[in-house]
Amino acid sequence: MKIGHKDLKADGVFIIAELSANHNGSLETALETIRAAKRAGADAIKLQTYTADTMTIDSDKDDFVISSGTIRDGRKLYELYQEAYTPWEWHKALFDCAKEKGLICFSSPFDKTAVDFLENLNVPAYKIASFEITDIPLIEYVASKGKPIILSSGIATMEDIELALDACRRMGNNDIALLKCTSSYPAPIEEANMVMVKDFAERFGVIAGLSDHTMGATVPVVATCFGAKIIEKHFILDRSIGGPDASFSMNEQEFTDMVKAVREAEKAIGVVDYNLTEKKAKGKDFSRSLYVVKDIKAGEVITEEHVRSIRPGFGMHPKELNNWIGKHSPKDFEKGDRFLI
User: Fold this and answer.
1) Is residue 317 located within the same domain as residue 179?
2) Whole-structure pTM over 0.85, yes or no?
3) CATH number for position 142
4) Tens digits of per-residue pLDDT, 61-89?
5) How far is Cα 139 from Cα 164, in angstroms, rounded to an integer?
6) Domain span holding position 315
7) Do 171 and 143 form a contact (C-beta atoms < 8 A)?
8) Nearest-5° Cα angle at 153, 70 to 40
C-alpha cells in the first residue's frame, strides 16, 4: 500500500502531523505549521475538510450541545465546527506548501461534497475520522475513488469495523489501513491498549497503525513495537495560541522527539536473526572456555583442579569438561595453556 511516494510496508512508519484546528483561523499559521511539521520529521500533513453546515445544524437543543465529559463540554457543535474548520479556499495553498516542502498532504472529508472538492486537488489518500466510521455511505463513496483509505477506530465496535471494511472492499478498494484510536481528548495512557495494533493487522488483514491523543511519545513507541505502520499525532506551533485541539497537540520540539524515538524503536525491533555479526562474533573472545589452571603431566589423571571453565574463550568449549575429567592427559600442559586436544 503506497500513499504518495511512501510504501507503508517497505519504508518504515508513516508519521502524520494532524493540522486539525491548530491554525486558529490564520492561513499563515497553517502554512508555518506545515513548515514546522517538515522540520520535525513528519512524512505527511493531514487536514480536515468540512464546514459547520456539512457536519451538523445550528441548534440550541440539548442534543447539539456537548456533554460527554470532555474539554469541549458545554459548547454547541455548530459553534465548535465554525471555529475549528479549515476554510476550503485555503486548501490549495496548503497542498502547494506541503508539496514544496516534500510532505505528503491529504485530508479527512466529512461528506460527499468534501470528497468531490478533494478529488479536484488530486489527494493521494483519504482518512475517515473516528466518529465517521459508522457512516457507511460516506465510506463507500470515498472508497469508490480508488485511493488508499485510512480508517480510525475510536468509537468503533468490532461490528462497526467489519462493516466499514466490508464497505471499502465492496467498492473494490483493498488499500486499507486501520488505526487504533482512543476518542478522548487528551486520552489516558492506560486506555491506549496498543496490543490492538497487532490484532488489527492479524484479524482484519489490513495495515495497522495509531491515531494518538495521549500526551508524549510513549504510546507511539509502543505502537511501533507492536507493528504500527502509521502514527498520527495532532501538531501545533505553540499550545499557547489556543484552539479546541491545542491541549492534546504536540509542539515542534515534542514532535521532533517523538519522531526520533519512533525511528530508534524501528531500528531496535530489527529482524529475527540468530547469526552473529563480525562484532558479536569477536565478543565471544570474552566468553568462557577450558583452560589449564594447574600443570598436568602426560599420562596424569585430569581432575577439576587441573582444568576449569574460565574466561577468555580461546580454549575448548565448556561442554567438553566432563568428558575429560578422570581421563589420562595425552600430553604435558602448563598452567594458563588453552585446554585443546
Assistant:
1) no
2) yes
3) 3.20.20.70
4) 999 998 877 767 888 999 999 989 999 99
5) 7
6) 278-324
7) yes
8) 80
